[in-house]
Amino acid sequence: MQAAEELNIPRYILLSTLFALDTSKWHIDDIDQLRDYYVSKHYADQWLTKNTGLNYSILQPGNLKEVPGTGKLH
Question: In the chain, N or C: fewer CB atoms in 10 Å?
């Protein structure tokens, strides 16, 4: 994020995770096992939204599956 701002790159896309900003969901088994990952994603999301002037999108995918692509976004 800092490098993008320094280089005047106006658009930033952050790959986050489902419930990164909703800490009340972090007790769920799968999430609880990845607590360090969720903490880092939480603070990355927070930094981007509160401390940068970037035009951004935050992608928060849910469960990832090994299936053929459909070419659609849901």
Answer: C
Pure H helices in the chain: 2-6, 29-32, 35-51
**Residues 6 or more apart in contact with residue 53 via CB below 8 angstroms:** 5
Query: Residue ranges per domain, the chain?
Result: 2-59
Catalytic residues: 37
Taking the complete model, does pTM exceed 0.85, yes or no?
no
Alpha carbon distance 64, 32 (integer Å): 17
Q: Which of 22, 50, 56, 51 is nearest to 38 (CA)?
A: 22
Tally of CA atoms within 13 A in the half-sphere of 5 that contains its CB: 10
CA dihedral 63, 39, 43, 61 (to 10 degrees): 0
Q: Any idea which residue has 């880092």 for tokens?
A: 40
